[in-house]
Amino acid sequence: MARDSDYGAFMERFLLQPSSSPHGLPLNTLTFAVKDIFDMEGYVTGFGNPDWARTHTAATSTAPAVLAVSRAGATCVGKTVMDEMAYSINGENKHYGTPRNPCAPDRIPGGSSSGSAVAVGAGLVDFSLGTDTGGSVRVPSSYCGIYGFRPSHGAISTSGVTPMAQSFDTVGWFAKDPVILNSVGHVLLQLPEVVPVKPSQIIIAEDCFQLSSIPYDVVTKSLFKAVEKFYGGYLVKHATLGDYVKDKVPSLKHFVNKEITDQDYNIPSLAALSSAMRLLQRYEFKNNHGEWITKVKPDLGPGISERVLDALRTTGESIDVCHSVKSELHTALTALLGDFGVLALPTVPGPPPKLQTDGYALEIFRARPFSLLSIAGVSGFCQVSIPLGMYNNLPMSISLLAKHGSDGFLLNIVENISVTLKEEVAAMLKS
């Protein structure tokens, strides 16, 4: 079991100092932790499961993403707990324990990068590396009240990272501070120093906010005020994203069903998007790991074992349609946002569920965030989750999303508006 003194965040602690003198390097003096999905030379990559660790040998090289931040002057202090085989957004691991959510100890931390998020949220490190396939950086960052960045798909090398589903896998990172978030991003994305560009529009996805339990007015009015201060309030627009996606992504009709349409908490086109994402994810997961699972028959926790079984039953049927959906959504959102537009939406529909929530209830709850998470996942766009403080003693957040390849632009916006945005939210909640 993970030790309690470190919030149960770590699999193992060690010190990996920068190979050269860190003085003058961009991440000098910063510490970081790494999800147990990244290869580190001399250590077994455990992938969240003891049977995986038992049947794999120590890595002979270190993942480029880890090397990049280390070479930029940061010190690695250990590997963090994750959900088994990265196949959950809950953050509970039956083998290694559930890392303790630092801002809501009776709630799940979110997964699958649970330990990485908790390590940052608890102040044990300055930043951490995770991965985000279906939402594994965005969800725990929201649940733990910190910043989480999912980069544009393919923008950061996933070499040396155990794959989950390659069409969606990204290397993401967490920070408590928007300046550190940006600094880490500049290193990982190898961004040049350029003059920040002003956004051309900030579109509030009104229907997406209707899915959220956080007060719509508090979040959207606070966002308007923060944007007004830095860029001008005239940039803020409103849209019904579900209708736009329905019109512009014709292949989605293959994934719309009556059950989805009748659910009052759902947006049918986005629920269909989620179905397409999860089908392709299952198919790729099976291709990556089906043979190992069949041979080893690993001991998997509740929820995960059922999802893995579903994945093993997946056939190639409709996979080509999933790829069409990806392509169409990418084109549609590029047209909507243009080069410097930003989409605002909730990261997740509500606060983290309680620990030991009934498995069936948790599965129903788990299905809901994917309508929101699949937008960046399927399009390949970059997304950042920004903490907004606490509402009813539970963390809340907002997400901003920008077109593929505009990661540096999005990071600069976050650094500009975050503090004001948080202050505006606090003021509105007091009034």
3D structure, described in words:
It contains 15 helices and eleven strands. The chain is α/β, with parallel strands linked by helices and 431 residues long. The protein has an eleven-stranded mixed beta sheet, with helices on both faces. Helix 5 packs antiparallel against helix 15, helix 7 packs across helix 15 and helix 10 packs across helix 12. 57% of the residues are buried. The mean pLDDT is 94. InterPro entries: Amidase_CS (IPR020556), Amidase_dom (IPR023631), AS_sf (IPR036928). One of its GO terms (molecular function) is hydrolase activity, acting on carbon-nitrogen (but not peptide) bonds, in linear amides. This is Amidase 1. Belongs to the amidase family.
Rg from C-alpha positions? 20 Å
Would you tell me the overall average pLDDT? 94
End-to-end C-alpha gap: 44 Å
How many strands, which pairing sense, and closed or not: the largest β-sheet?
A: 11 strands, mixed
Q: From N to C, what is the helix and strand string?
A: EEHHEHEHEEHEHHEHHHHHEHHEEH
Assign an overall shape: globular
State the helical fraction: 25-40%
Strand coverage percent = 15-25%
Number of helices: 15
Let me know the number of strands: 11
Descriptive key words:
11 strands; globular; 40% helix; Amidase_dom; 15 helices; Amidase 1
Please write out the topology:
Layout: E1 10-16, E2 31-35, H1 50-54, H2 64-71, E3 75-80, H3 114-121, E4 127-132, H4 138-143, E5 147-150, E6 170-175, H5 178-188, E7 201-205, H6 206-210, H7 216-230, E8 236-239, H8 241-248, H9 258-262, H10 268-296, H11 304-313, H12 319-337, E9 341-345, H13 359-367, H14 370-379, E10 382-391, E11 394-402, H15 407-430
Parallel strand pairs: 2-3, 2-4, 7-8, 7-9
Antiparallel strand pairs: 1-3, 4-6, 5-6, 5-10, 9-11, 10-11
Helix pairs in contact: 5-15, 7-15, 10-11, 10-12, 10-14
